[in-house]
Each structure stands twice: as C-alpha cells, then as structure tokens.
Amino acid sequence: MAVYRRIEEDLRGRIASGEWMAGAMIPSRKDLAAEYGVDLGTIQRAVAGLLSDGALRADGGRGTFVAMSAGASRLPSVSKRSVTPKMIALIYDQSFNPTDIGAQSIPRSIYHKFLEEEANCRLLIFDTHGETPERIVELEGHALDAVESEGVSGVIVWHSGGESTLPQIRRIMDRGVPVIFMDRYPLGFDCDFVGVDDEFSGQEATDYLLGLGHRRIAFLAPLENITTIDQRLAGYKKALANVGILPSPELICRLPYTLSLNMVTLKQQMKAAAASLAALNDPPTAVFAVNDLLAHYYISAIKELGLSVPGEMSVIGFDDMDRFAPAPQFLTTMHQPFETMGERTAELLLKRLQTPGQRTFQHILLPTKLVVRQSCRSL
C-alpha cells in the first residue's frame, strides 16, 4: 500500500477512535507531515481522500474539520469492493475525560481489524455520553432505535442502559443481527462478550496488597449494578477469604457516583469517603479503587486530609490510564488491554457475520497485568 494510503487509513482510524470529534479541526498539513515523517505532498494526497468522500471539510482560511454528524459518525468503508458494505453500529460513551483516553483506542482498533481482514464494513458510531444516568439510557435507546430502522448488520455495544434497553437489544438479536457486548454485560443475559476477567483481576489486585502486609484493605467503587464492579468486588472478597479475613462492610465504600457526574461533585463525594474511612477506629492502610479515576481522586482527597501516599495509605487502581498521561506515572494499577479488546471484538463480530443464526454465545476473557509504580508500599 502506498505511503499516502496508509496515512489516509490511519487518519480515518483516528476519526473512528474519537480522537477528533465531529466539528473538530485536525492538525495543519505541516504538523501532520512532521508527525508522520513525510513530505507535505504526501499529506496533501492523504487528506484529499478524506475530503473527497466527505469525512473532512475544508473551511477556507480557517483549517480542515471533521465533517461527521454529531449524533452518529459514519466512517468510510474499510474495503474498496464495489458491493454495498455492511453497516456496523458501535454504541459507546465517547466522553473525553482524560482518564478515558485508553477506552478511545477501542474503536480505532476495531476499524484497523476490519481493515486488516479486508472486511467490507462501515462503522456507524453512536455517542451515549450524557449528563445524567437518565440521559445515558435515553441516548442508548435512541442509538438502538436507529439500529432497528437503518438495516444495520451488526452491533458492538459498551452497555450503559441498564435493564431499560435490554428489550430493544433482545429484539435486534432475535432478528438475527449479531450483538457483541464489550467491557461489561447484563447479568443473566445470554450474549457474546469481550472483556477482561474482572473477578480474577480484582483478586490479583487485592492479593498484591495482602502480599505487602496490608490487612485492612478498603474497596472503593460507584454504586452501580454493572458486572465490572460486581466481579471486581467478588475478587476482592475472595482474596481476603483466602487468607482468613472476613470482608468488613465498613471498608466497602460504594459512592452514589456514575460516569455522568461532573468532576466537582465527584471530588466532593471522594472527600467525604476519604474522611469517613480515615475516621474509623481501625482505618484501612490500603485501598483498592475499582478504576483509576476514583484512585486519583481518592489520592487527592487523602492528601488534603494531611495523609501521604504511599507513606500512610497505599492505593491501587484499575485500567492503567497513567500510561497515557504526560505527568510522571505514579499509580500502581491493573492494566486493561483496550486495544486487544477492540481487536477481539471485531474478530468475534466478523465470525458471527460469517455464520448467521449462531445461537451459542461466547465470552472472551482477556488477562490484565499488574503494573507496579509508586502508590503502594510494604507495611
């Protein structure tokens, strides 16, 4: 493949990943040429392909912008075949909280897998980010309405709609449209799923703290009924039980927090949680936070109380978002393989498209990896 074609496809992937949102201005031709290490003419040819099919639009004198609609972003087919491409809906939260950067690599890896397999597919991306839990459910419902009406061939969903949207998903599946759940899935719902082994990972994170000598270990998570949290909590409890420790209810801290909360509210909740744990007669010496966002906010709250990390409190997170941060990496955490998750999801969907009517579902559980940094210490 010519260099400019490879760059063109990579630019499409960056749009697919949400790196450049609808209406966003992309870097200048000069900056792109420097980034890719090519001459200006090569970049001009790569961008021209995106301009010609409407993925980008040029605004004379101002720059070049992503020209996709705000509700659903259509990506050009990854195949040059003349036959009509299959429409694949990707339904997930495209919020650009800095801690979510890793998750943004998922659509890009899906797109690249389609390209690698020369699959004649086109991604249709629906953003379900909302300011309230009710709005998130509503947006997922709207996305599923569109799936039912637009003749979509397959669906990949980062499920956030709770039980409210399950009847729609079941109707789509009953019509023979394959649906793959990523990251989390509804308990008791027969489905294909690609994610990590959350229970084993939760156990491994807790085992690490136990191995450092900690016995009073708190578990910090949102008050949400999703499999990722439930299974990581189960792993935490299992690790404690294996060394003869009964999980203490006062150390299981569930916050009335969802991804829709603004950061000010979340910070206030975290201050209250940190103060509550610190005020216990026998306070914890370590905390397992169910994701890195909570871990970082907890560390900030602990420091405001005059306590040090890891001197007086060890903290372990989950996701490994520090690897995307420009600041020095500090948080010990469980690494989630987001890129692999996207690739395996695409592979499973392509398999389902090749064998329509398949009713034996598959759960693909990917391993996580403990990443030891500076936020934990031995007692």
UniProtKB/TrEMBL annotation:
Keyword field:
DNA-binding, Transcription, Transcription regulation
Q: Which GO terms describe its molecular function?
A: DNA-binding transcription factor activity; transcription cis-regulatory region binding
Q: What Pfam families is this protein classified in?
A: GntR, Peripla_BP_3
Q: What is this protein called?
A: Uncharacterized protein
